[in-house]
Amino acid sequence: MEEYETSGHHQWKFFRAGGFDQVLLETGEDLLALSIRDNKLWSALSCPVKGVEFDQRTLQLINTDNDGHIRAPEILAAAEWAGYSF
User: Fold this and answer.
1) Three-state SS for 40?
2) Residue 50 lies in a domain
3) Of 24, 26, 31, 80, which residue is most buried, by most CB within 10 angstroms?
4) 68: DSSP letter
5) What percent of the chain has pLDDT over 70?
């Protein structure tokens, strides 16, 4: 079930999985608007660089402090960089 919430000028969509609501990231605008979301609303605050079904090299590039985990500030920095890159 999708729900909507507006934060600033961005309209968020949500889906329910694992017993709680999660933001649905469908567009580049969704990624760029992540910086206006409160970190307390993030469902996960860390992701390992290894052992997940995502391109490991991309995860390593996002992991700027090379600690083996991607955290919210690194996701925000990568989204901002990608938004300015094209």
Assistant:
1) helix
2) yes
3) 31
4) S
5) 87
Question: Does 48 map to a domain?
Answer: yes
Q: How far apart are CA 23 and CA 10, in angstroms?
A: 12
Q: Look up the pTM and report it.
A: 0.72
Give residue-wise pLDDT tens across range 38-55: 777 776 778 899 999 999
Instruction: Please indicate, yes or no, if residue 33 is contained in any of the structural domains.
Output: no
Provide, for the chain, the percentages of residues in helix, strand and coil under a 3-state DSSP scheme, each rounded to the nearest 5: 40, 25, 35
Identify whether the C-beta of residue 70 lies closer than 8 Å to the C-beta of residue 57.
no
- Kindly give, in sequence order, each residue whose CB lies less than 8 Å from that of residue 53, ignoring residues fewer than 6 positions away: none
Residue with tokens 């999708």: 2
* Whole-number Å distance between alpha carbons of 24 and 3: 10
Residue closest to 43 by CA, chosen among 67, 25, 62, 66: 25
Structurally, how many domains does the chain consist of? 1
